[in-house]
User: Fold this.
Amino acid sequence: MSFGQLGYDVAHLLGGGVLLLSFVLLYQRRIGAVINAFAMQGALLALAAAWAAHAQGVAGLYLTAMLTMAAKGVLIPLALHATVRRLDLHRTVETALGIGPSLVAGVGLVALAILVALPATEGARALAREDLALALSVVLLGMLMMITRRNAISQVIGLLSLENGLILAAIGVAGMPLVVELSTAALVLMIAVVAAVFAFQIRERFDTLDTASLEEHRGERR
Amino acid sequence: MLTALALLVGALLALGVAALALARSAAGAKTVHGACVGAGAVLVLGGLAGLSGGATALDLPFGPPWGAMRLALDPLAAWFLLPLGIVAGCASLFALGGIHGPVPARLLLPWPIFLAGMLLTVLAADGFTLLLGFEAMSLASWALVAHDTAEAENRRAARIYLGFAGFGGLTLVLALGLSAGGAGDVAFAALREAPPDGWRAAAVFALVLAGAGSKAGLFPLHVWLPLAHPAAPSHVSAAMSGAMTKVALYVLVRFAFDLMGAAQPLWLGMPLIALGAASAVIGALRAALEEDAKTLLACSTVENVGLIAIGLGLALAFRGADLPALAALATAAALLHALNHAVFKTLLFLAAGEVLHGALSRRLDRLGGLIHRMPWTAWAALAGAGAAAALPPLSGFASEWLLLQALLAAWRVGDLAFQIGVAATAALAALAAALAAAAMVRFWGLVFLGRPRSPRAAGAEESGGAARIALLVPAGLTVLLGLLPGVMLDLAEPALRQLSGVAAPRAGFLAVGAADGGARYWPLAAALLLAAAVGAALWAVRRRAPPGIARGPTWDCGFIAAPAHLPFGDPATQPSAAGFAQPLRRMLGDSLLAAREHVTMPPPGSTAPARLDAGFRDPALAALEGPLPRWRDAVAAQAERLRDLSIRQCLGLSFGAVVLMLALLAWLEAR
Assistant:
């Protein structure tokens, strides 16, 4: 499978779409739009998994696709919307690093991911190499989002989109056992639950979701 | 034989565990120490067998996850088993004689483990086993140093010693990792196959020098010795000084001569020579100034380790310059001195222990006149002190004479800088030997001659039995090794051949010599000449003396008679330890040891006495306790600031680390 063939092109398109949505996540200024963009990223990821299942002929990946679609595409975004409504949050995203500089940093990270992933995987299939570079970019952008946003909800979304990158890497590699994906997904779900509970607690105590408000309450501060 | 020695390691470890139960009664403690005496005898036998037989190797059926633990007994290891066995046997025998009741488990338990650790280090044939033994040795000896936590001085000594032990282990881990390289195989056979070269060789050598050197007591990492030895019980001090420093030197030799390959540049020996010369002078000078008997002996150990290091450095340089015969000579001097020093320093420490037991003090200013109350100890200590002072025909002279021959022959290396350095080293070694002689005269004279300086010293009692045998055995060996250095060199021949490629120049059983046509030393002839001279002097004195011997009071330099409440005379009319050391302190102490002297005069009209304060500090210890803790605190304060980072900043740190690693990876791939 190489450039110009349908299987390659579609997989490439879907992976690229996931990466593009990572940039969209970084670009959004309103929290509702961030959640919607995340939902779209989840849906695209599910499509990518389904396409990989079709192309590789692995039935297990369909299960991954369904799970991703249900969790990332529907349930988690709905829950996040509900949280935002319930907590009556500011609908704007509070940034630590401006939108423009974040995007510039994101482009730099994608360049770095390509520089690392392509030479390291020399000899592997073209698709796997591209896929790995894309996945690494998504992971790095998720981390970037976690550290450039002040709001706890945005940070949770950053973490979840980071996990999207991991799944993207996993489906690109033929022969990855399903158990690994499932356990990773379960782990991230647990983290999301914990983070949500935590966000509620923060909100109840401090009337804000800005994590900076936690800092003055740290006991070990000298 | 190797199997027996491997079993001995296991038996000693088991004995350490059993000591927990045996410590409850005196008989149990005696069993433990008695078994250790037996272990010492087995070690000596193992050393002799290893020197006469060929090299053997043994893979243990267990070990770390990546392979079996390997042991090997080659002539080099076998030679170092000799001092280990003699010291372990004598020290255990001394401890056995000092048991009069239950011994606390924290004092009894680490002793067999200490011996087992040293044995394992010497037998190790892979890096893991070596480190295991080295660390067991360090930690067990730390536990023995730290047994008495009542005094702040001892706690400080134990703390500093633990710091040095950890540092030594760490540098050896790094050295092994660096010499194993990417392959990661730390078996000695694999390390020998691929010896490090270039900057890696330099780094490995520097790390080993720091790690093994700090354990052996090489300048400037010698500062723990004078602190730790007085804190430990006497038999432990003896083993630490006699055996542990030798095991550390063995590690140094194993790396420098064996694992780092045969083809080494000339300069590799130079740091060893320079550090050895510095240790020798500083150690001997401090020994001549210290006022605590065991501290003094520890400083003398620093001096002797320095001399051995000079020999090893010379041997390395000669090997690099392709002068194998001279390399064998220098190696012979170093190995022989290692054995001799182990024996006579054990003897001196045990004698100091016996004095501490009998007169209840280590301070020279509270002893004196003990030759009357403790004659066996006094004469045994005289043999040790004579050897430490390098007097013929005792053992110290033979090996130091060989070392001097090697130093004097070093002009054959063509490099001018090396020649100049070695000439300076020869002068420093001679200075160190002279200072050591002064230190030993001061030590023996103040402790055993003159009048008692305290009632305790006047009423000192000598213990007999095992403790006396433990003094007489090393005293006899000191004389014997001094008279028969040629035999010992013949015995060491396989080890010398292993280290330098050729055998040491032989001069027969009764003599040692540099090379054909070079200088020779016949110890028996020297002993006979000396005995004849002493006998003639005695005869002449007796002949000219009037008949009938009357014992009178010691002449006290014209001072008036002491008052009645000072039955042993006024202590002020005898030279004190500080007074004896004053000329040397003024001459050399100012520049080398930051010695100070300050007179406080009372104001005019006051009847208060004037005060003279004098003292010195070891600059290495001052550096260790001054800037180093300050830097550590500054670094810790900076690191503390990490705790105040916000969650985002913490995430940012790990993110930054990931990005940095990826960038590094990309850069490496691009090259």
Q: What stands out?
A: Chain A touches chain B through 21 residues (CB under 8 Å). Residues 6-207 of chain A form one domain. The helical segments of chain A are 6-27, 31-56, 60-87, 99-120, 126-148, 152-172, 178-206, 212-215. The CA atoms of residues 132 and 202 of chain A lie 37 Å apart.
